[in-house]
Amino acid sequence: LPEKVERSLHAMRAAEAEHGVGTPIMIFTDLRIVDRSLRPVCESYWKFQRVDPRRIALRQLLTQNVPSGCGMMINRTLIELARPIPADAVMHDHWITLVAAAFGKLVYLPIAPILYRQHADNVFGATGGSPMQLARRTRLDLGKIRQRFYRNVTQAAAFLDRFGPSLDPSSAELVRAFATLPRQSPVRRRRTLLSYGFFKHGLARNLGSFLIV
């Protein structure tokens, strides 16, 4: 929509003035979901997905991305630090978000200046986050859910490989704990999720994680 770039740029300039242009910064917004004919479905992508855009700590983002690429504005410092996007990244936006969370600032701009077109061929899409919707997907696609979860783990391993020496000790410990889940016993994996706070958004999603991990 017309105000997207202007308002995001205004927020970026304010964030750089506060934190410095040498800080990796991401501005991200909400989206408005529409159908293939651009008819309104929901005024808020976050509300539809039952995601809290304020929960953007590194421990949370390792398990579930929040910002969408189409809603991002990133500064030059973040671009240079995040490149190149590795083959093991789940998606470009998830990788860039992790870099911003570990080394810079994520700023949520509470507007929805994008029409997110939901259709039959979205790569991920807005699938809803109600317990019934999540339970239905868990029942039908348990293998795919497990595969997606461990893609996040593989991405964390690539992140640790790239940035391990540059991370502060607490962040390095977080990423290492998540990246080494496959080498842990089933009981230890679930204990790791609990002790490090590797929680997704919503009870149903977290129950799913404990089921498939």
- Distance between the ends: 40 Å
Helix content: 40-55%
Secondary structure class reads: mainly alpha
Q: Into which percentage range does the β-strand content fall?
A: 5-15%
| Count of helix runs | 10
Tell me the Rg in angstroms: 17 Å
Shape descriptor = globular
The sequence of SSEs as H and E is HEEEHHEHHEEHHHHH
Major sheet details: 3 strands, mixed
In short:
By secondary structure, this protein is mainly alpha-helical. The chain contains ten helices and six strands; from the N terminus they run H-E-E-E-H-H-E-H-H-E-E-H-H-H-H-H. The mean pLDDT is 91.
Describe this structure in words.
The model has no long low-confidence stretch (mean pLDDT 91). The chain is globular. With 213 residues, it is mostly helical. The strands form two sheets. It has a three-stranded mixed sheet with strand order 4-1-5. A three-stranded mixed sheet has the order 3-2-6.
